């Protein structure tokens, strides 16, 4: 644990059987620590300060369970509990973060450039669904070409399974997945094999079940803004100072006590703050300080595609490292399904849009967006490609289909291979969702495990959301089809890891593309400003990656639909300039499961195989 940050909230073990307790409870007159000791309950008063914090030091060892009793009546878990072994409604447990023996002293962390991110859900990646059960699979992910694992949120949630975005105990790793030290072991092993570890955190709302923050202060939340999921956090209203401190310490805590190499910040468009200095700017500065000599990366989900998120602090920005840009996914989804509906209504899914994503880092950069009936986005073309995170799949976008199908199940294997080839050779930072690399057959569905009344409401809300898609609405309202929910959805979403050996072609394609991305001297140095591109018709495009005096140009061609015959080639980027084009890789290669179609050399009319993508290099071979 870095000496640059120490958590000052909750229960902090001081050694020699002594623990300091500190909690912000300005609406309360008295706060006592209720310790569960040898089958009895010991009550110890905390002293109130003028700032609304209660604090005190008492005899209590790691492993001791406790609650805070408020005004001599009801007792509640610690809002800053490091561990909730019985879930969000049970007692908190004192944890000594210094007990774990880290072995990653030589680990330097992550830099923004050159990352390949792999998003996974702990509970469904393996049959066991535990932190420790992930460890044997880390070397295979490294060998695939992944550089960083991004865990979906592990904040303590109610029930046996959840996506994690309904978390309520923000400092407590979910006991369903294992103990705090087992999570530390996962991070430590990731570093040992050469993988960065990133954690998805939710700082825009809390879940409804097990959220006891209002018992301590009503100021944690605000009604001046709104989110789709619950009350927004109060970052800029009355008594916002301790609220800001709570969430800033939470961000630093994951970096310092768990050695995470960065954070993915959920739905930053719903982190509202009109303070002179935005909370995300403070978070960027504070977490980097908490990391000490390690480098960390901070990614932001941003439906509004807000450039200020990656603008440096010195220029008045938030100082984060990369933005999730939905445009790339949305246009590829329309290209695959042929249907532009709901939030994909404003996309054509054609070659022009896919080309613009590559050249300009996204599509909506301040233009009119019919779905929302307003202007959407900010200019992204000035950002570096590494600051833009593209994906073909993620947890949300798979589950936004009624039955949670994977990309290849919607597109067919050939088009899925073609889009994968295009996607992984672009200069933007790629994110893969678990199982994508071997064309997993398991869906990824929305699942929660709430009490019956709340579970019913969640199920209805999910179906109401899916009805935004006319294709799903008919199935739901007319045909009587309903998505799996609850435990059925959770079990169906588990990966079948044996498919890594069964779907060798898809896995080999991903491995080879990531090797090229990393090792090809032209592809690896490309930027969105250096490449040039043009469409070859409504469904085909070409990108040219410039070389130099010693390195020849590369040419990336994508054809979304049937075979294209270019009898006439008025496309300057196809010129071989007296040389010829040589094959590097094709999504149609037989080793990837393709049909082995021949590639053009530039010495005659060009034939573009249907639903394919290929990379050529300029040479004299």
Question: Can you walk through the features of this model?
Answer:
This protein is of the alpha/beta class and 621 residues long. The protein folds into three domains: 10-96, Immunoglobulin-like, CATH 2.60.40.10; 117-454 and 497-514, TIM Barrel (Alpha-Beta Barrel); 531-619, Golgi alpha-mannosidase II (Immunoglobulin-like, Sandwich), CATH 2.60.40.1180. The protein is built from 17 helices and 28 strands. The strands form seven sheets. An eight-stranded parallel β-barrel has the order 10-11-14-15-16-17-20-21. β22 and β23 form a beta hairpin. α6 runs parallel beside α7 and α12 (413-425) packs parallel to α17 (504-519). The longest helix is centred in the middle third of the chain and has 19 residues, at 240-258. The protein is elongated, with a radius of gyration of 26 Å. The model has no long low-confidence stretch (mean pLDDT 96).
Q: What oligomeric state do these chains adopt? A: single chain
Share of residues in strands: 15-25%
Uncertain runs with pLDDT below 50, 5 residues or more?
A: none
Mean pLDDT: 96
| Overall 3D form | elongated
Distance between the termini: 56 Å
- CATH C-level of the largest domain: Alpha Beta
How many E strands?
28
In this structure, how is the largest beta sheet organized? Answer: 8 strands, parallel, barrel
């Amino acid at each position: 644990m870095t000496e640059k940050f120490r958590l000052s909230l909750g229960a902090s073990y001081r050694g020699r059987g002594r623990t300091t307790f500190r909690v912000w409870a300005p609406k309360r007159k008295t706060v006592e620590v209720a310790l569960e000791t040898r089958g009895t309950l010991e009550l110890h008063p905390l002293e109130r300060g003028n700032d609304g914090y209660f604090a005190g030091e008492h005899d209590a060892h790691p492993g001791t369970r406790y609650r805070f009793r408020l005004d001599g009546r009801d007792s509640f878990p610690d809002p800053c509990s490091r561990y909730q072994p019985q879930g969000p409604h049970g007692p908190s447990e004192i944890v000594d973060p210094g007990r774990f023996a880290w072995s990653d002293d030589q680990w330097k962390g992550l830099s923004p450039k050159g990352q390949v991110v792999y998003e996974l859900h702990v509970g469904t990646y393996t049959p066991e669904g535990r932190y420790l059960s992930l460890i044997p699979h880390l070397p295979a992910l490294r060998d695939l070409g992944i550089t960083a694992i991004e865990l979906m949120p592990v904040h303590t949630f109610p029930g046996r399974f959840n996506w994690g975005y309904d978390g309520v105990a923000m400092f407590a790793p979910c006991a369903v997945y294992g103990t705090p030290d087992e999570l530390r072991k996962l991070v430590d092993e990731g570093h040992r094999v050469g993988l960065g570890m990133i954690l998805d955190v939710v700082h825009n709302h809390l879940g409804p079940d097990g959220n006891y923050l209002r018992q301590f202060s009503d100021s944690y939340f605000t009604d001046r803004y709104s989110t789709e999921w619950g009350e927004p956090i109060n970052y800029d209203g009355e008594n916002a100072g301790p609220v800001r401190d709570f969430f800033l310490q939470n961000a630093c805590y994951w970096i310092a006590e768990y050695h995470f190499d960065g954070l993915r910040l959920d739905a930053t468009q719903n982190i509202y703050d009109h303070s002179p200095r935005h909370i995300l700017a403070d978070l960027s500065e504070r977490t980097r300080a908490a990391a000490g000599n390690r480098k960390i990366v901070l990614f932001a989900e941003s439906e509004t595609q807000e450039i200020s998120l990656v603008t440096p602090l010195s220029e008045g920005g938030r100082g984060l490292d990369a933005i999730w840009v939905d445009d790339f996914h949305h246009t590829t989804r329309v290209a695959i399904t042929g249907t532009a509906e709901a939030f994909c209504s404003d996309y054509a899914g054609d070659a022009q849009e896919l080309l613009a994503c590559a050249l300009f880092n996204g599509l909506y950069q301040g233009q009119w967006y019919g779905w929302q009936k307003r202007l959407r986005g900010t200019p992204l073309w000035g950002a570096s490609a590494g600051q833009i995170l593209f994906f073909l799949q993620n947890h949300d976008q798979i589950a936004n289909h009624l039955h949670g199908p994977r990309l290849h199940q919607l597109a067919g294997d050939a088009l899925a291979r073609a889009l994968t080839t295009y996607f992984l050779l672009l200069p933007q930072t790629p994110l893969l969702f678990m199982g994508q690399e071997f064309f997993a057959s398991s869906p990824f569905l929305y699942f929660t495990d709430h009490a019956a009344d709340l579970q019913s409401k969640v199920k209805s809300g999910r179906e109401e959301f899916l009805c935004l898609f006319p294709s799903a609405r008919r199935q739901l309202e007319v045909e009587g089809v309903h998505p799996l929910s609850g435990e059925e959805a959770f079990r169906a979403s588990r990966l079948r890891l044996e498919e890594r050996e069964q779907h060798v072609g898809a896995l080999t394609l991903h491995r080879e593309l990531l090797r090229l991305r990393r090792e090809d001297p032209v592809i690896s140095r490309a930027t969105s400003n250096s490449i040039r591109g043009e469409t070859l018709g409504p469904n085909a495009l070409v990108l040219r990656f410039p070389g130099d005096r010693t390195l020849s140009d590369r040419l990336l061609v994508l054809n979304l639909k049937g075979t294209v015959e270019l009898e006439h080639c008025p496309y300057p980027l196809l010129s071989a300039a007296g040389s010829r084009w040589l094959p590097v890789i094709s999504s149609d290669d037989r080793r990837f499961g393709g049909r082995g179609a021949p590639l053009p050399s530039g010495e005659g009319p060009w034939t573009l195989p249907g639903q394919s993508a290929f990379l050529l290099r300029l040479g004299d071979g």
